[in-house]
Design brief:
Layout lengths: L1 E5 L3 E6 L4 H13 L1 E7 L5 H12 L3 E4 L3 E7 L7 E3 L4 H11 L5 E5 L10 H6 L6 E3 L7 E4 L7 E4 L5 H15 L7 E6 L4 H13 L6 E3 L3 E4 L13 E4 L4 H14 E6 L11 H9 L2 E5 L2 E5 L7 E3 L7 H9 L4 E5 L11 H11 L3 E5 L2 E5 L8 E3 L4 H11 L6 E4 L11 H7 L3 E4 L1
Parallel strand pairs: 2-15, 3-14, 6-7, 10-11, 18-19, 22-23
Antiparallel strand pairs: 1-23, 1-24, 3-5, 4-5, 7-9, 8-9, 11-13, 12-13, 15-17, 16-17, 19-21, 20-21
Length: 431
């Protein structure tokens, strides 16, 4: 699909999309918990659909109602020996340890760029947990056979915090379903994206799972809690909060080309990407808050410096922002962009150069020089949802239309992105 964005101003009120990160974790918690879970404000992006199919294959019963998603589960009891994570990095890193809780042999697959993402973490760690594993030289497809036996281990947290998320879920469930006398610790070196671990722990708490003791994000210690042993859960009602990762594109769009009110973003959220507010405000945009609403208005913008190591998904909207700032902006943490839906550093350089925006990478820092005028161009999404959205945002201030090829990539996380753009007054045309 090709989408053409004609330069335009935006204004109005919009609801933030549901948080994909929260929704996927809530589905995992609902699978592990015995009982019924009612999930409100659920999302149906491609990644979320993939996770729903995964928990169904692992034994959960899922029913779509008008206002909520009903998940009934009695724990991990696979009805299929195959799991397809499609292109979701979080799904494969989170559900592989969860699937290992069973003694079934499980085949784990994926599609697209997920086939190239490194998963040798499991080749190293699973044998320590008594889980048999074979992989394609550290990539999918994986074949695993548990059951996982939790024990004290030491892991590398520098590639992705999502591996730790999967272990936290699986260790918690293991403790709640086995008699464990001594504490068990997950030791973590060089943990990145700590706010995403905060999100995982918050959801575990919301679902009344056994929480580990968090010692400075370096050790997560599980202690036996006899009051939770084999506990049958009461019904859980969970509302997915708005998504700061995708909301960031709307916030930047308003800062450079209009004024909008966004509903549904919680400023007290544990989501890492709420840092976008800090950056946009420091650049000079007008921002105000009321209960569950954020108002953003366009203003002359100055260059910024920001460390995105713990929130790498902000790189694409920040590049769109920097392109519209006076001066040169610096964003640290480029190494976190290598194993995404694309090599995002290269993709951002290539596509924004077509629009007249110079991006240089020096060591671990991206240097973006604000453009005097963003140029109309035909750009390629690299099958990456965030590249497509970043270029669409930048197109609002271009001198001519920007055409985005393979724009359907937005379906991975924000299927209604272009519809929401239109609702806010942007000139959008599907070709």
């Amino acid at each position: 699909m090709k989408v053409k964005i004609t330069p335009s101003k935006i204004n109005g009120v919009i609801n933030a999309p549901a948080s994909k990160s929260s929704m996927q974790r809530a589905c995992a918690a609902a699978l592990l918990r015995k009982g019924k879970t009612f999930i409100y404000n659920y999302g149906l992006s491609n990644d979320e659909k993939s996770v729903i199919e995964i928990i169904k294959n692992l034994g959960a019963r899922v029913k779509f109602e008008k206002d909520y998603l009903l998940i009934e589960s009695n724990g991990v009891n696979p009805i299929s020996n195959n799991i397809n994570c499609e292109e979701s990095g979080l799904a494969i890193r989170m559900f592989t340890p969860i699937a290992a809780l069973t003694n079934n042999e499980i085949n784990i697959e994926g599609t697209g760029t997920l086939t190239t993402r490194p998963l040798d973490f499991f080749d190293t760690i699973f044998p320590l947990l008594q889980v048999k594993i074979t992989s394609n030289n550290g990539k999918i497809p994986l074949k695993i056979k548990g059951p996982l036996q939790a024990t004290t281990i030491e892991i590398d947290g520098s590639i992705s915090s999502q591996f730790l998320t999967g272990l936290l879920f699986s260790f918690s469930n293991y403790f709640q379903n086995n008699t464990i006398e001594n504490p068990i610790t997950i030791k973590v070196n060089n943990l990145k994206s700590k706010p995403y671990i905060d999100l995982t722990l918050a959801i575990m708490q919301d679902f009344e799972m056994l929480l580990p003791e968090n010692i400075n994000y370096k050790e997560f210690v599980f202690h036996t809690d006899t009051t939770m042993h084999n506990k049958i859960a009461e019904n859980i009602i969970y509302t997915v909060e708005g998504d700061w990762s995708n909301g960031a594109f709307l916030i930047v769009a308003a800062a450079i080309a209009g004024s909008i009110t966004i509903k549904g973003l919680n400023i007290y959220s544990t989501q890492a990407d709420k840092k976008i507010i800090e950056v946009v405000k420091n650049c000079g945009a007008t921002i105000s808050f009321s209960e569950n609403e954020i108002f953003i208005k366009q203003a002359p913008l100055q260059a910024f410096e920001f460390d995105a190591t713990d929130c790498p998904d902000l790189f694409p909207p920040l590049v769109a922002l920097a392109a519209n700032c006076k001066g040169t902006s610096y964003i640290k943490g480029v190494h976190r962009l290598l194993h995404k839906e694309s090599n995002r550093a290269n993709a951002l350089q290539e596509e924004f150069l077509k629009m007249g925006v110079e991006i240089n990478i020096e060591n671990d820092c991206m240097k973006i020089t604000g453009a005097k005028k963003i140029m109309g161009a035909t750009i390629y999404s690299h099958q990456d949802h965030r590249i497509a959205m970043a270029c669409a945002v930048a197109a609002l201030n271009a001198n001519e239309a920007v055409c985005i090829e393979n724009a359907e990539a937005v379906n991975k996380s924000y299927p209604n992105f272009f519809k929401d753009f239109e609702l806010l007054g942007a000139f959008v045309k599907n070709n």
